[in-house]
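Quarterly update from the structural biology core.
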Amino acid sequence: MGAGDLSAALWQERRQLELLIFRLETQRLHVLAGNLRWLSFTAAEVDGVLERLRFEALARGVESAAVAAEWGLPAQATLIELVAGAPAGAWPEILQDHLEGLRALLEQLSDAARANEDTLRHLDFPVSAGASTGPGSDATGTVSLPADTAQVLDQLTMAGNIEHALAVTRRTPQPLLARYLDGNRD
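Predicted structure, tokenized:
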């Protein structure tokens, strides 16, 4: 383990952040185009990238602690502290480039998540006239469902997909990465 491994871990994390931004933008474009049937798939893709990002954050933490120890810094050193404590040579510049790149990606991620949430929260989809009609029963006790039951179920499923997509979108911020970059340890 060394600075090269940390740099590789930071590249992997950057790649996953780019993919997350792409997935969020793809989801938003599908919603804006009216392709709501794909919402459950796009939410699952965003969720999958979030899972991979958790792994990448763990790998980064391990590599960062090893480099910090090698350079005589505390194990919980932030990226700013690693840049400042790096030995003379290429590492200060390489780590500074990662710092700037990750900050920019976090800003883009914040913008994409905000746009997605706004789009999803203001999404209008039609509710059928029979949606308020509940099941009834006949003289034999057999439950009868309204004629448009399939449409009501489709609407309930869509509402659930929208709520799921919102929940996934709200999980996209990366506060631990932001703290690692800037040293804000509140």
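The longest strand covers residues 136-137.
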